[in-house]
UniProtKB/TrEMBL annotation:
Belongs to the TRAFAC class TrmE-Era-EngA-EngB-Septin-like GTPase superfamily. EngA (Der) GTPase family. GTPase that plays an essential role in the late steps of ribosome biogenesis. Associates with the 50S ribosomal subunit. It holds the Pfam family MMR_HSR1. GO terms for molecular function: GTP binding. The keyword NADP does not apply. This is GTPase Der. GTP 1 binds at residues 12-19, 59-63, 122-125. It comes from Qipengyuania aquimaris. InterPro entries: AAA+_ATPase (IPR003593), G_ENGA (IPR031166), GTP-bd (IPR006073), GTPase_Der (IPR016484), KH_dom-like (IPR032859), KH_dom-like_a/b (IPR015946), P-loop_NTPase (IPR027417), Small_GTP-bd (IPR005225).
């Protein structure tokens, strides 16, 4: 059985509580929420459940009556497109504010569509909302469901409104999911969709690049810096010409990350924090540079953060189609990366163009390869053969004439790869020797530019609690 969850779109004018309702339905604060209108700009999806009714819910930008060429107009067009293929729509109004002309305009548009609509009167707590609820009957969309997304009141009533529309499809999807789980785990199964986050400074072209990959205007773009606010995940299938197969990718677009001193707006602070969380959930992070601006200190800070979180890192220079002195630009950025990210030398660097599509397939193929290295586990026997050779080629120092004994090494975990070295007097082991081990692991064991963690452990001395214990060195810090 192959069934997908039904899709429910949340629609309404700005600041009626759409993102608050979205967060309430998925059970976590995934969408940015603030009192000022227009916080949400791109579609955001999440898994929702009400009393066993499972569906995919989509948060959309506030509907505004503006020209299509303006930013609010382009946001409205994104909302209109989101209704295509949806199974149901939740039309949200502000019960305390009553019905506005914009609410009436949205209702007229919805009545012309084929998608069933459930009218939701939000902010319905208290007597102040009663008049707005009664007034909403005039929209011609049936009986309104009074809820308070902020306080969680009336959410269960949405079950009654949605079940007749999406109930059967939800049950089919649940049955298909249960059947798949009974098949058991396969050790040779693929690693799942590649979680690929696109990060960088504002206006580097992150959303444009994702739209180019998808072949549609899925994300809002434009000349204005800082359009993207939420971190938006888009599931996508890509044909890999190198592997000659179709591969699954979860693309994550993030807000532009400026220097902290320049970030004063509350919404931008929330957006940057959201982008940092997106890095935590990614497997591979692509730092996107603007070829017309080159590499700046802020780019290195973003790259360092990704490495500190243990993510596999790649760097792509966008707008290559308009780059000047391309060869010297590429070589200069390569040298600056090696110097500025000395903890991980040789980070993959690509020249791409979101406008023409140049280099994007090559970049994506490399992303799968670096994830494979990031997930690699080295057999203990092979690991210790390398370890013995490394010690023989460059024995540990003997400070004060006392030998530092390194006994053996094991790989404790993957994603990122983490190794534990056991020995004695490890507190005296110089950082330079720890770097020697990390660089050897990368060069000889196939981890290349992947952030590698090395932890040192000494056996505890029962006669001296102040000795032993070792330390740790991280190749990603």
């Amino acid at each position: 059985m192959n069934a997908t969850k039904p899709t429910v779109i949340i629609i309404g004018r700005p600041n009626v509580g759409k993102s608050t309702l979205f967060n309430r339905l998925i059970g976590k604060k995934l969408a940015l929420v603030d009192d000022q209108p227009g916080v949400t700009r791109d579609r955001r999806m999440g898994d929702a459940e009400i009393a066993g009714l499972q569906f995919t819910v989509v948060d959309t930008a506030g509907w505004e009556d503006e020209d299509d060429a303006t930013l609010p107009g382009r946001m409205r067009k994104q909302t209109e497109v989101s209704l295509e293929g949806a199974d149901a729509a939740l039309f949200v109004i502000d019960a305390r504010a009553g019905i506005t002309p914009l609410d009436e305009e949205i209702a007229r548009w919805l009545r012309e569509q084929e998608v069933p609509v459930v009218l939701v009167a939000n902010k319905a707590e208290g007597k102040a909302a009663e008049a707005g609820i009664y007034e909403s009957y005039s929209l011609g969309l049936g009986e309104p469901l009074g809820v308070s997304a902020e306080h969680g009141e009336g959410i269960a009533d949405l079950f009654g409104g949605l079940w007749p529309i999406i109930g059967s499809k939800s049950e089919e999807a649940e049955a298909a999911e249960e059947a798949a789980s009974l098949e058991g785990d396969d050790e040779n199964a693929p690693a799942g969709p590649l979680k690929l986050a696109i990060v960088g400074r504002p206006n580097a072209g992150k959303s444009t690049l994702i739209n180019r990959l998808l072949g549609e205007d899925r994300l809002l773009t434009g000349p204005e810096a800082g359009i993207t606010r939420d971190s938006i995940a888009v599931d996508w299938e890509w044909f890999d010409p190198k592997a000659n197969e179709t591969r699954e990718i979860r693309l994550i677009d993030t807000a532009g990350m400026r220097k902290r001193a320049r970030v004063t707006d509350k919404i931008e602070k929330m957006s940057v924090a959201d982008a940092k969380r997106a890095i935590d959930f990614a497997e591979v992070v692509v730092l996107l540079l603007d070829a017309t601006q080159g590499l700046e200190h802020q780019d290195l800070k973003i790259a360092s953060q990704a490495l500190e979180e243990g993510r596999a890192l790649m760097v792509a220079i966008n707008k290559w189609d308009i780059a000047e002195n391309a060869s010297s630009l590429f070589n200069g950025i390569r040298e600056a990366l090696n110097e500025g990210l000395s903890q991980v030398r040789g980070v993959p660097l690509f020249a791409v163009s979101a406008k023409t599509g140049k280099g994007l397939d090559t970049m994506l193929s490399a992303a799968f390869e670096i994830r494979e290295a990031w997930s690699r586990r080295v057999p203990t026997a092979a690991l210790n053969r390398w370890f013995d050779d490394a010690l023989e080629a460059n024995p540990p120092p003997a400070p004060g004439g006392r030998r530092i004994k390194l006994r053996y090494i094991t790989q404790a975990s993957t994603r990122p790869p983490r190794f534990v070295v056991f020995g004695t007097r490890l507190d005296d082991l110089p950082k330079s020797y720890e770097r020697y081990l990390v660089n050897g692991i990368r060069a000889k064991l196939g981890f290349d530019a992947v952030p590698v963690r090395v932890v040192l452990k000494s056996p505890k001395n029962p006669y001296n609690a102040n000795k032993g214990g070792g330390g740790n060195y991280s190749g990603g810090r």
